[in-house]
Every structure is written in C-alpha cells, then in structure tokens.
Design goal:
Layout: E1 10-12, H1 15-23, E2 29-34, E3 40-47, E4 56-61, E5 64-69, E6 74-80, E7 86-93, E8 96-103, E9 106-112, E10 126-128
Antiparallel strand pairs: 1-10, 2-3, 3-6, 4-5, 6-7, 7-8, 8-9, 9-10
C-alpha cells in the first residue's frame, strides 16, 4: 500500500449491502454512501453504460467453450449532491466497490484491499479510501 498511495486509510465497508441498495436504484437516483462515522456522501448516480447488456464471458472447459452472462457488476457515474465541482465513478458488486469520488481538488479512491495485500476474501471486504 505504501508504494501505491501517499496517504490512505483501510476501512471495512459492507459492499454487499451497498451493492443491493445500488442494484434497486432507478437510473438517475440518489444513494447515501457511508464510509465511517465521519465520512458519508449523498451521491447522485446513473448507469455509466460502459458494460454492454450483451456482454458475455467465454470460458474454455473440458466440454468446450461455455458462454455465460459476463458480470453482475454495476458501473455507475455521477456526482456528490451539493458539490458542484464533484465527479463520481464507482463500480459496485456484492464483494467489492471500486472507483473514485472527486470533490474539488481532492480525490478519494475506493479499492478492494485485496488489490494490494494478499488477503482471503471476507464477507465484508475492506476497501481503501
């Protein structure tokens, strides 16, 4: 982590609950993302549509090529409500949150800890901010 970031905090975010909340949003809705007791953002999010609805994964198996729906990830974009110079780009899934929140000159990256540390998967993945 020290090689990748000058300043960071390791936090435990219930990504599964956040994913469930985001997956029920209509396109162009607000959600409250609570990072800890001190940090909470009201986000306006909409589907970024960077993943095609027809996206398929092809996997080579002993029985041949198997094609299946590619991902359950939800790539979203938007802004922090009440912050005119903000931008949000986050991808949600039931086991991770990945992306950034930019407010003015400050950028907060949220990434799974497993990208930096060799850790076993947890029910509530730890993310960096």
């Amino acid at each position: 982590m020290d090689k990748s970031f000058k300043d960071y905090d390791i936090m435990n975010i219930d990504s599964r609950s956040v994913y469930q909340a985001v997956s029920t949003l209509r396109n162009g809705s607000e959600i409250k993302l609570r990072i800890n007791e001190k940090t909470e953002w009201n986000l306006y999010l909409e589907n970024s549509e960077i993943i095609s609805p027809n996206y398929l994964v092809s996997e080579g198996t002993a029985d041949g090529i198997v094609r299946k729906k590619g991902t359950t990830a939800l790539p979203m974009q938007g802004y922090v409500v009440g912050q005119p110079n903000s931008r949000v780009s986050l991808t949600f899934n039931d086991n991770f949150i990945y992306g950034f929140i930019k407010i003015g000159q400050s950028t907060y990256f949220i990434e799974p800890l497993s990208h930096f540390e060799k850790v076993k998967a947890l029910i509530n993945l730890s993310c960096t901010v």
